[in-house]
Amino acid sequence: MSELPKLEYLELWLGTDEYGANHTVADLQPILSGRLFPNLKYLGLRNSQLADEIAAVVVNSPLIQHIETLDLSLGTLSDEGARALLKLPASPTLKRLNLHYNFFSADLIRQLKALPLTVDASKPSDMDIDDEESRFVAVGE
User: Radius of gyration (Cα) for the chain, nearest Å?
Assistant: First the structure.
């Protein structure tokens, strides 16, 4: 990975193994440590089939203490990942959580919207959250 100490905006479209993605959550650790990009304000780990695993790790990441926006949109986040995000620690900077187009329940959406930040948990009304095998990232081809 490159060292870009002044980088403020980082957006990664992680994808699915059906279309060649081969990342793991461990691959994201240099970013999540907060040391690689100390001025990062926006982190987008979007369109990921590993959204639940990423959510579970990112809540304990030092990076949460200095970014303004965490974007996990367009992925396969389920109730499991949403529950992990409910454990986000208080942060002096985190203002926005983008979870648009994911697969978690209305009850979890209500709980997430109670967090002390702006949460976008919108999704297409026809998305089936109950069938794990039908979950898919927003962009696959």
Answer: 14
